[in-house]
């Protein structure tokens, strides 16, 4: 039976790079996005380049709890994933004291609560199989305070804390848990920034790190992956 990977927010950037890396290894793919056109393009690309895999691509806004739970039911009907990558996220710069009203709630709902509710909805199936690997895509903003990081940084610190708790809760269930904490990666979040592309990390490097961590023996787990641009943070 083929294995499957679920990557939330998988149509662009790091999420897409992870999907393509695992699809290259024959994994069935489950993903979601708010943009139906992006989902259709991803599905078509995967089916063209990986004829033997199955793809479930669902339009869903994971900032809304009810849509997270609806998505989880569709996932369970398709396949309990062997790999769950909580990747959905949004970044809006701003300082805590003067960022627009609602930024905090929106980024916590998208960056943290989506992962919390989805993991809770799917973990029962992983426990039954006594296997699985959960990756949380955080950020170095969850390790270091940055000016103008505001609610984004708060949500990423909280994501790291949640992932550490999951690691402790699931270690005896043979389910691995890994925090992925990338620095500035060349994705849509950095569009319009006047810096050369070479100054950023590549999404495929993050994907390769996830693939490598997944491939350790059952006796070992990478608890945290911290990746930064060679020339330092931006």
Automatic annotation (TrEMBL):
The keyword Oxidoreductase applies. One of its GO terms (molecular function) is oxidoreductase activity. Keywords: Oxidoreductase. InterPro entries: NAD(P)-bd_dom_sf, Sc_DH/Rdtase_CS, SDR_fam. CDD domains: SDR_c. The keyword Oxidoreductase applies. SUPFAM superfamilies: NAD(P)-binding Rossmann-fold domains (SSF51735). Belongs to the short-chain dehydrogenases/reductases (SDR) family. This is 3-oxoacyl-(Acyl-carrier-protein) reductase.
């Amino acid at each position: 039976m083929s294995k499957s990977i679920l990557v939330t927010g998988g149509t662009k950037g790091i999420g897409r790079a992870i999907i393509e890396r695992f699809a290259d290894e024959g994994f069935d793919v489950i993903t979601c996005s708010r943009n139906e056109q992006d989902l259709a393009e991803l599905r078509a690309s995967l089916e063209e380049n990986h004829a033997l895999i199955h793809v479930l691509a669902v339009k869903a806004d994971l900032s809304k709890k009810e849509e997270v739970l609806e998505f989880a039911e569709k996932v369970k009907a398709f396949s309990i994933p062997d790999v769950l990558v909580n990747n959905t996220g949004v970044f809006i710069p701003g300082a805590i004291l003067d960022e627009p009203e609602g930024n905090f709630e929106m980024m916590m709902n998208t960056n943290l609560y989506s992962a919390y509710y989805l993991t809770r909805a799917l973990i029962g199936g992983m426990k039954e199989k006594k296997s699985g690997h959960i990756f949380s895509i955080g950020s170095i903003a969850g390790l270091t305070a940055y000016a103008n990081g505001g609610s984004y940084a708060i949500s990423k610190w909280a994501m790291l804390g949640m992932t550490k708790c999951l690691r402790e809760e699931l270690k005896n269930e043979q389910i691995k848990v890994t925090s992925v904490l990338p620095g500035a990666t060349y994705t849509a979040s950095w569009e319009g920034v006047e810096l050369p592309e070479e100054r950023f990390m590549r999404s495929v490097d993050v994907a390769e790190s996830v693939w490598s961590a997944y491939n350790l023996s059952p006796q070992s787990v990478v608890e945290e992956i911290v990746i930064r641009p060679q020339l330092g943070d931006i």
